[in-house]
Amino acid sequence: MNGFERRARQIKDKIKETTLNMLSMSSVKAIRIADIAKEAGVSQVTIYNYFGSKEALIREIFLEFMESILDEFEGVVTGKATLKEKIEYIILQKKKISHSFHPSVLAELMENDLEVRFMIQKTYEERSLPLVVELLAKSKANGEISNDISVNTVMLYLSMLNDSSHRMLESIQYEEDQEKLIEEMVNVFFYGICGPQTQK
Q1: pLDDT by residue (tens digit) across 19-50?
Q2: Global confidence as pTM
Q3: Helix and strand counts by DSSP (H, E) for the chain
Q4: Largest interatomic CA distance in the chain
């Protein structure tokens, strides 16, 4: 990479970093190219030259973010962490995404950007879902999950827990209380409301 290419990469990265920060606080509709240019210290023309449009810029940022999340997800799920640690990580995934983007961003992109919608569905079906199914199947084979419970049932329960967890965590003000809730949710996932003593 020569000096010109390096400088171009730095400018593009600055624009994307600035836009990502803005997306954590504002909806897609509320963000203007003029605002991005001002915050990034570049001209509007520079942004159009590199990305073509606001929509293309935000699409690129979001898809790159999702790719990094998926890479991290794959590393954790296939790594050496315990099953409990992996389940805790899965529960926290949605919270991490919601903290990176304004609450309306995902809904706006899913509604207005067919490419984003297609890529999210594709990566879920081809990467996320198979990884979780493989994790649960291996855990069941290792005796970490009861033979009386199917992988499909565990998937359904985990999905329900995951869908509601981020709303519950957002309603709690203090981090130590959030950590306690996560620990309790993981314990309920593994032992039910009666606790591990009933498993003996």
Answers
A1: 999 998 999 999 999 999 999 999 999 999 99
A2: 0.75
A3: 10, 0
A4: 68
